[in-house]
Amino acid sequence: MGKVAIGRVVLIDRDHIIALEPLEKGLVGTLLRYPHEVRSEPEYVDDIQDEVFEDQYETALIDLINQKRGQAD
């Protein structure tokens, strides 16, 4: 129907404003924040170092495949 209900819920001894909307056979609640509770992007990412991301899972999987190839020969 394109409508959202606004409500209050207590989480950890504090009132929060939430939006409730239908989702398939149930409801989904989204916690809404006041502007003073939202931090800007630089506050989150300024401390992150510029590093090259290495997918350790992919590397381990390739190593496992290569080991199994060696056993099959």
Topology, element by element:
Elements: E1 5-11, E2 14-23, E3 26-32, H1 41-45, H2 56-72
Antiparallel strand pairs: 1-2, 2-3
Concise overview:
The protein is of the alpha+beta class.
Description:
The chain has 73 residues and is α+β, with helices and mostly antiparallel strands. The chain has one domain (5-72). The protein has 2 helices and 3 strands, in the order βββαα. Strands 1-2-3 form a 3-stranded antiparallel β-sheet, with no helix packed on it. A hairpin with a 2-residue loop joins strand 1 and strand 2. The longest helix has 17 residues, at 56-72. The termini are far apart.
Q: What attributes characterize this protein structure?
A:
single chain, 73 residues, alpha+beta, 3-stranded antiparallel beta sheet, 30% helix, elongated
Strand order of the largest sheet: 1-2-3
Please, how many helices?
Answer: 2
Kindly state the mean pLDDT as a whole number? 86
SSE order in H/E notation? EEEHH
Q: Specify the structural class.
A: alpha+beta
Radius of gyration: 23 Å
**Record field, number of beta strands:** 3
Basic shape: elongated
Strand-residue proportion = 25-35%
**What are the low-pLDDT stretches, counting only 5+ consecutive residues below 50?**
none
Helicity, as a percent range: 25-40%
Total tally of structural domains: 1
Major sheet attributes? 3 strands, antiparallel
Terminal Cα separation, in Å? Answer: 62 Å
